[in-house]
């Protein structure tokens, strides 16, 4: 399923950057680049797609027309990728599991290749064949339920990305066992976000905000000036939307967050969130309340947020800093209201003085 990202980071951007989110025809110009004038109030549109609200704001004067092809791209890819309605390419692949390979479009094949890479690299935290488990629990849907242990054990036999065959020459996908289900929800919105940014750039847009239900990309500089980055608020995982626990300044970066607190199933007083461990068939159980990944590509932020979430805070921090070491950063919020960040952003991440959170001591992590 197309996973609903939990933290509406971009909802905070308008307030924090002092840049309005009006759709007014009267646009005040604040700054300019060599070719484009940058507006204080952007051209904007919001549509309910992919199971969430998709928001795009364009600040380049005269570039309002870029919104339509951007939203068209979201719809096009969403229709190809979803497993929650019949007729999508991924649905067809799943329907033909154990029967025959299915030829897919270049878009979908490229996404599947990336999903396979993350399945290999995530140390077991991400498996593109998790669908047998996610469709069993159905968390986030009206028919969500806690399955029996027997049901979970049977579904786990079908969770193994090694049983997916990708044919680069023919662009076909084959699931070796009947009942296997590919679920790209963990990285689909990241991929689509990156595609939207490509569309905007092709249309000549230099300054914009793209938000696909929490997968946020800040393009170019803030409307406040060419030397000003966007000030991005990080949602407090324990309070209502719009409540900030801290901020960080970024440009030409994506911020992707995974958390346990908004989308869950409660049974007998116990909450089961939507981030599943491919090894147990149950939600991951560790010290993380949320993790935000800051990186260049949203698909990488998606894959990493799931993979790192599975590791817990200590191993997650070590993985981002030592294994990646490529400008990717992370912000962890624990269930004990501690905040931990990767070393390169320890001076640029600003914890809100009015929040109940404190910066954690990494030496105390187990």
From TrEMBL:
It holds the Pfam family ApbE. Its EC number is 2.7.1.180. Magnesium. Can also use manganese. Keywords: Cell inner membrane, Cell membrane, FAD, Flavoprotein, Lipoprotein, Magnesium, Membrane, Metal-binding, Signal, Transferase. PROSITE patterns: PROKAR_LIPOPROTEIN (PS51257). Residues 1-27 form the signal peptide. InterPro entries: ApbE, ApbE-like_sf. Flavin transferase that catalyzes the transfer of the FMN moiety of FAD and its covalent binding to the hydroxyl group of a threonine residue in a target flavoprotein. One of its GO terms (molecular function) is metal ion binding. Belongs to the ApbE family. It is a lipid-anchor. It is found in: Cell inner membrane. Its cofactor is Mg(2+); Mn(2+). This is FAD:protein FMN transferase. It catalyses: L-threonyl-[protein] + FAD = FMN-L-threonyl-[protein] + AMP + H(+). It comes from Enterococcus durans. It is an enzyme of class 2 (transferase).
């Amino acid at each position: 399923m197309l996973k609903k990202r939990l933290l509406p980071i971009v909802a905070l951007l308008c307030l924090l950057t002092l840049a309005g989110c009006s759709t007014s025809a009267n646009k005040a110009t604040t700054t300019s680049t060599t070719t484009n004038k940058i507006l204080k109030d952007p051209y904007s549109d919001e549509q309910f797609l992919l199971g969430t609200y998709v928001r795009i704001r364009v600040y380049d004067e005269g570039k309002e027309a870029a919104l339509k092809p951007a939203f068209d791209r979201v719809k096009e890819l969403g229709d190809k990728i979803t497993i929650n309605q019949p007729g999508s390419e991924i649905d067809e692949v799943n329907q033909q599991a154990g029967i025959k390979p299915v030829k897919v479009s270049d878009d979908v094949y490229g996404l599947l290749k990336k999903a396979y890479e993350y399945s290999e690299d995530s140390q077991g935290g991400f498996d593109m064949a998790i669908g047998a488990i996610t469709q069993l629990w159905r968390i986030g849907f009206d028919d969500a339920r806690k399955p029996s242990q027997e049901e979970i054990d049977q579904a786990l036999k079908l969770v193994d990305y090694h049983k997916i065959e990708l044919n680069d020459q023919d662009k076909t996908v084959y699931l070796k066992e009947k009942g296997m289900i590919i679920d790209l929800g963990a990285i689909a919105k990241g991929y689509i976000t990156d595609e939207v940014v490509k569309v905007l750039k092709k249309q000549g847009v230099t300054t914009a905000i793209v938000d696909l239900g929490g997968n946020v990309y800040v393009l170019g500089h803030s409307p406040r000036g060419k030397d000003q980055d966007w000030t991005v608020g990080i949602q407090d995982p324990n309070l209502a939307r719009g409540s900030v626990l801290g901020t960080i300044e970024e440009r030409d970066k994506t911020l992707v967050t995974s958390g346990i607190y908004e989308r869950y199933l409660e049974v007998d007083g116990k909450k089961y969130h939507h981030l599943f461990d491919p090894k147990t068939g149950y939600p991951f159980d560790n010290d993380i309340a949320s993790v935000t990944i800051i990186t260049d590509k949203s698909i990488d932020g998606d894959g990493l947020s799931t993979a790192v979430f599975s590791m817990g805070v200590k191993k997650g921090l070590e993985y981002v800093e030592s294994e990646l070491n490529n400008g990717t950063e992370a912000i962890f919020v624990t269930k004990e209201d501690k905040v931990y960040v990767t070393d390169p952003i320890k001076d640029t991440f600003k914890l809100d003085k009015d929040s109940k959170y404190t910066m954690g001591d990494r030496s105390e992590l187990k």
